[in-house]
């Protein structure tokens, strides 16, 4: 664990963004600072879609990445602390996405995808991240937390 890193919930990885042993940290192609305004979620989706299109990535991979960005940015705005920042890289063979916020105390949890209708209004976003990404996780240190995912290009 990095100096100053916080304990993470069971089942959540603490790898990319911080451990060069396990994941090569890519050079970030897109940095998008976001305010705490919920309208920023739409802006983040648009920036993500435009960036992926400029990299020649469309179709299912782009659709999944845009959906997951929407989930992570929503979580950061609703449950994190500003500033929030979206970071994207497209290193060889994968899409790497990070969403940073300055709240180092709270950690997202994976909720059930199925269940009785109306049982929960939220809590399914990270289940989508786990289902649609190739890898995901989070890390936290004194500056806040980063929730990340990667999707392998097929």
Query: What do the pLDDT scores average to?
Result: 81
Structural class: alpha+beta
Rg from C-alpha positions?
15 Å
The low-confidence parts are 1-22
Spell out the helices and strands N to C: EHHEEHEE
Strand order within the widest beta sheet: 1-2-3-5-4
Helical fraction equals 25-40%
The DSSP helix count reads 3
Query: What would you say the CATH architecture is?
Result: 2-Layer Sandwich
Distance between the termini: 32 Å
What is the number of E strands?
5
Shape: globular
Pfam family, one: HATPase_c_2
GO molecular function, one term: protein serine/threonine kinase activity
Keywords: Kinase, Serine/threonine-protein kinase, Transferase
Organism: Motilibacter peucedani
Brief account:
The protein is built from three helices and five strands. By secondary structure, the chain is α+β, with helices and mostly antiparallel strands. It comes from Motilibacter peucedani.
Question: Any overview of this molecule?
Answer:
With 154 residues, the protein is of the alpha+beta class. The protein has one domain (30-152): Histidine kinase-like ATPase, C-terminal domain (Heat Shock Protein 90, 2-Layer Sandwich), CATH 3.30.565. 29% of the residues lie in helices and 23% in strands. It is built from three helices and five strands; from the N terminus they run E-H-H-E-E-H-E-E. The protein has a five-stranded antiparallel beta sheet, with helices on one face. The longest helix is centred in the middle third of the chain and has 21 residues, at 59-79. It is globular. The termini are far apart. The model is unreliable at 1-22 (pLDDT under 50).
């Amino acid at each position: 664990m990095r100096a100053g890193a916080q304990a993470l919930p069971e089942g959540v990885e603490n790898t990319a963004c911080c451990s060069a042993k396990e994941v090569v940290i890519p050079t970030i192609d897109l940095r998008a600072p976001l305010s705490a305004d919920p309208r920023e979620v739409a802006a983040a989706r648009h920036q993500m879609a435009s960036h992926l299109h400029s990299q020649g990535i469309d179709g299912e991979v782009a659709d999944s990445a845009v959906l997951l960005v929407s989930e992570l940015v929503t979580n950061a705005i609703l449950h994190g602390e500003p500033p929030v920042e979206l970071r994207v890289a497209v290193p060889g063979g994968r899409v790497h996405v990070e969403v940073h916020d300055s709240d180092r105390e709270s950690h997202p949890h994976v909720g059930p995808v199925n269940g009785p209708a109306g049982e929960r209004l939220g809590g399914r976003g990270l289940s989508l991240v786990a289902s649609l990404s190739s890898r995901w996780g989070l890390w936290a240190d004194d500056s806040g937390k980063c929730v990340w995912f990667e999707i392998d290009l097929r």
